[in-house]
Amino acid sequence: MRRALVATAAVIAVVLLGFSLSKVGGGRSSRSIRAPTTARSPSTQPGKMPVVLGNSYLCPLGYPFRAYERVGLFYPPNHPLLPASTVRPSRCFPTAQQARLAGYGEASTPPGAFQVAGVYLLPVALTDQCRVAANVLGFAVPCPSYLPRPGPGVAGPGCGQYGPFILPTKTPCVLPGKIFYFEEAGFAIPPGFAPAGAGSPAADLILTAFPARGRASHTELPFNLECPEAESLGPTSLSLDEKRLEVEAQVLYCPTTVELPLGGHLIVLWISHSVRYQVALSGDEPGHQELLLQIAAFMVMVGSH
Q1: pTM > 0.85: yes or no
Q2: CA distances from 132 to 138, 212, 302 (A)
């Protein structure tokens, strides 16, 4: 009897040992063979890594939107608060939409600035320069109070900057023939902001004012400040001087076949007190006209009529 009990106990022990080994031995349980979870490598994450160039970090061509994981934000390449190139982005994205899908929020427009058609307009203090020009000319001149943010390596806007032209003048912003001329060339633009055409700056803003009688194509100037070939895009109303002055204007487009500086520019034109006023912006893509009219609406008329 005792011998039978011992044999039975031995059989039970063997069965239990075999069951235990089947649980831990050979890795046959699905739970025991599951690979440990690992984070995605940079090559499998959305966007691309920045390129290191000396002490700078550059986004690859076609990936201009920089995202920073520490703050959870991405910045368009023309954003006024875009971190310096010495600050390393976490990822670079081809579009704002892809940056959002990756979990980043878009950096806000700074207080006091405006964003129109992807271009950031910043306040400028040019009244004193405009007043000097108006006193010399004897009529009121259109003085911008908001202008696009300057492009990388471009000086801030001001009188005396004439884009691709070299024009020695006694008074900044005053050209021969009683002409007021203000230009901001090369301002910061968002991806997709189309240039005006061959030979024109990719981003160009021109303000002019001169007597309406007679042509502005004086022999002293290497260019013409009127565009007889301009196509009319219709009338518009402008509210100037912080909406204290209403003027009726025309929106025109000067074709790229016309010589610089107005070739390939949208123009808003009005005449007041026998003075012809023009604000011209390079390009003719969706959003350009909205930007042009907003810049014009921000202007103040400096000087007396």
Answers
A1: no
A2: 10, 21, 9
Tokens at residue 126, please? 């040019």
Take residue 172 and report the two structure tokens written for it. Answer: 């900044």
Residues 166-211: tens digit of each pLDDT: 566 789 999 888 999 999 988 999 988 865 444 455 689 999 999 9
Instruction: Please provide residue 135's backbone torsions phi and psi, each rounded to the nearest 5 degrees.
Output: -65, -35
Residue pair 266/253 in contact by the 8 Å Cβ criterion: yes
Whether the CA torsion 292, 293, 294, 295 is positive or negative: it is: positive
Closest CA to 216 of 166, 140, 276: 276
Instruction: Sort strands 105-106 and 73-75 into parallel, antiparallel or unpaired.
Output: parallel
What is the Cα–Cα distance from 139 to 167, expressed in whole angstroms? Answer: 22
E strand or H helix at 295, and its extent? helix 288-297
* pLDDT tens digits for range 203-250: 899 999 999 976 555 556 778 899 999 999 999 999 887 777 889 999
| Nearest Cα to Cα of residue 225 among 252, 253, 263 | 263
DSSP H or E segment with residue 18: helix 2-24
> What span, in angstroms and rounded, lies between the C-alpha atoms of 104 and 297?
34
Half-sphere exposure of 141 (CA within 13 A, CB side): 30
Residues 304/140, Cβ–Cβ less than 8 Å: yes
How buried is residue 299: exposed, middle or buried, by Cβ count under 10 Å (0-12/13-18/19+)?
A: buried
Tokens representing 214 are 């007679």
CB contact at 8 A, 182 and 144: yes
Low-confidence ranges of the chain (pLDDT < 70): 1-44, 161-168, 194-202, 214-220, 304-305
Tokens of 132: 């000097």
What is the residue extent of each domain of the chain?
43-106, 114-302
The single-letter code of the amino acid at 155 is A
Written as one string, the DSSP assignment of 118-165 is TEEEEE---HHHHHHHHHHHTS-EEE-SEEEPBPTTPPPP-TT--TT-
